[in-house]
Amino acid sequence: MPKAETGYIQSLRITVYDVLGKEIKTLVDEKQSPGNYEITFDTFGLPSGMYFYKLESGQYNIVRKMMLLK
Fold first, then answer.
1. Could you tell me which residues come within 8 angstroms of residue 24 by beta carbon, excluding any fewer than 6 positions away?
2. 24 and 50 Cβ atoms separated by less than 8 Å
3. Residue 2 domain-assigned?
4. Could you tell me the residue range of the domain that residue 19 belongs to?
5. 15 part of a folded domain
6. Dihedral, CA atoms, 13, 10, 60, 55, nearest 10 degrees?
7. 3 pLDDT higher than 90
C-alpha cells in the first residue's frame, strides 16, 4: 500500500441514503491520504427530511443520520 507523508493512502467512500435505504448520491469514491477535507453536497431536488450517510475507509465504517431542512 502506498504511504503518504502523514500516513497510508486508503480508499474513501461517502454515500448518502434516504430513510428507506435507497442510495441517493455517492459524494466521494477515491483514494486519499489522511487529513482534513471538505465536500459539498448539492441537495437540489431533494425534499426536507431525514437522510443517512455512510463513511467507509479501510476497515472503518460508520453510519450517521442527518436532517435536511430547506
1. 16, 17, 18, 46, 51
2. no
3. no
4. 10-68
5. yes
6. -20
7. no
The residue ranges of DSSP E strands in 8-48, in sequence order, are 10-18, 23-32
Cβ-contact 40, 18 below 8 angstroms:
no
Number of domains within the chain:
1
Query: Is residue 4 assigned to a domain?
Result: no
Laid out side by side, the sheet with 23-32 consists of 23-32, 10-18, 49-57, 60-68
Answer whether 26's CB lies under 8 Å from 15's CB.
Answer: yes
Q: What is the dihedral of CA 65, 48, 39, 54, to 10 degrees?
A: 30
Question: What pLDDT is attached to residue 8?
Answer: 83
Q: What is the pLDDT of residues 29-53, one digit of tens each?
A: 999 998 899 999 999 999 999 999 9
Determine, yes or no, domain membership for 3. Answer: no
DSSP three-state, residue 35: coil
